[in-house]
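[job 4417] fold queue: 2 targets
>>> target A
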Amino acid sequence: MAKKFDIIKMKRGKSLSEAAQNISSMDEETSQSIENLILEPRKGNVNNALVAINRDQTLSKSNKKILIDSLREQFADLFNFNNCPDDYETLKVELLFLSELTQVSFLLLGQRLMKIRDNELYRNDGYSDFKSFVTNEIKISRSTAYNYIDLVSVFGVQTFGHVDSPDPSKLIPLLSILKSGREEIPCEMIKSQFIEEARTKSARDIKEDAKQLKIKYGLLDTPEHTDPFDRAFNSLLNVFPSKLSALDKKKIRNYIKQLNSLLESK
């Protein structure tokens, strides 16, 4: 049944209410779900409104976009790392809603993508693999989707979502290092260091620092134009364990003594 939306404007729902009032007609279910959301702004009602809007055959594609954009603008803050659902249908509704947001919201998207991937929930829609699900359902590239998932799985949701949290995009260059599985890489130390530096350093500087770490731990070939002394020194550093034994320290002192002799020679 088509219905003209009509509700008293409220502070929280003003924009959504105005958007709905400018649409000539919509299904009873859609109208009611929007009214419920404005009267009681909680995440469950956002999901109900999204489902109703998306399956409303009375609404044009452009009007659906107007309503969903209004939802994003006003109610995205109702989604957080502590209220990620478990069932596939709700996960899918939420990740589609979050897929056009930025900053912390894309990590919320990553959290929901990870749950769909890890539990193979994409099979509910007939997809044989996660890649096919992302390609057909989400308006982001596969590489972007995997970056979102890795940021959540590698750094943990506790790293983000608060006032002084780092810019997540700055930490992407570290992912291949922290996921490499190399025992000699001090992952926790690197994570702590770069989470702190991401608050003050530029993305360019962090990317360069990450590149040097990749060279140091053999994850990236040393560029041919690199000075031979730098190549030799990086190779030397790469063979040392993160925790030095007494014998290791003795050897290093001996190397330093030999280098000092070279510096003092004419």
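>>> target B
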Amino acid sequence: MTFKRSWPHLRAAFVLFHLTAITLMALPAPGGGLDRQQWADPTVQAEFRLWNQRLDGLGVHMTQAQFEDRLYAAAHAIMDVREVALTPFKPYYKYCATNQSWRMFVAPHTYPERLHIEVKEGGEWRTVYVERDPTATWRGYQLDHDRMRSAIFRFGWRKYRTSYVQFADWTARQAAVDFPEATEVRLRYWKQRSPSAAEVRRGFEPEGDWDDVLVRTLRKVP
């Protein structure tokens, strides 16, 4: 059989191989969600309660702790099967750059965090940057960049604690230059539940609290 005659068959085989590879890679997978320390986040807990209530309505009764344990075991089993299924395609993912490194969104973030940066001048704290606030825009040309906003969102999760600490150190170096009279810089996140549509209509504002507070002493630049 000549190459010209066999080419349609080879092409069809490659298309089938490619579709199989990217479909398997695109199947939902918990990935980093297997870190149970992150399950304590209010957004995650709210999702768990919702799904446990749905199962309860279908006659599957279990406590929240039992639900989480079974979910964790099921997720591990899924990842084990997924690993076996993807193994033959890993060279293709690597050398053809067909890997999928991010996950689709699975639920709304109902307890969002908002970064605040303050400097201490004359013994008093002054706010210089608030995420998405046009009245506090220090270093906004950097901090409001799409790439940086993505990083700032991640800093609010325990998984990225090391990166958040590094970001605080970087912020301290910039603040030491831009605010020569300041002695300290403070980074913290305001964490607040998103109001429901009914709450918005009646003007209700859910309570919030400060989280992930980091303070750095500013070293003066000679």
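[job 4417] complete. Note on B: The chain has two domains: 3-95, 113-217.
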